[in-house]
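input
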Amino acid sequence: MAPLKQIGFVWLGAFLAAAVIGFLAFVTEQPLILGSFGASIFVLFILPDTPFAQPRNVIGGHLISTLSGLVFFHLISPDWWSMALALATALSLMQLLRVAHPPAGSNPFIVFLAAANWDFLIMPTLIGAVLLVLVALFYNNLSKERSYPKYWF
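output
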């Protein structure tokens, strides 16, 4: 079991990250919250040293996966088989481009379920992913036991 100090540190970081995007969504009345961001917060604060938590992976993974969903939804078909193709393509592209971020794998499903428009790529995907990385950058480096990120590119 992790020490209580570490659990408390992660708890506060997760709270702050969720609060930032939640508060900004509330204040701007813009959709800044994706279900996959909850899992991204897990990776950023519990597994910050892993490749999946690095800024390139978090931001790039969310962008590639959402873009894949949008392309298939709008240009191919809004049907179930197109959603499956979008997911498979997103995973392959994340792997190919070295931006694998497991939480982002759900973004094509989110795009299809929300019948999202093209601006979904910027808001909430890009802006939300960047905000999560910024919170992780500042918060994780408050601890002498952490150094985030391990690399940018």
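quick obs: The first helix runs from residue 4 to 28.
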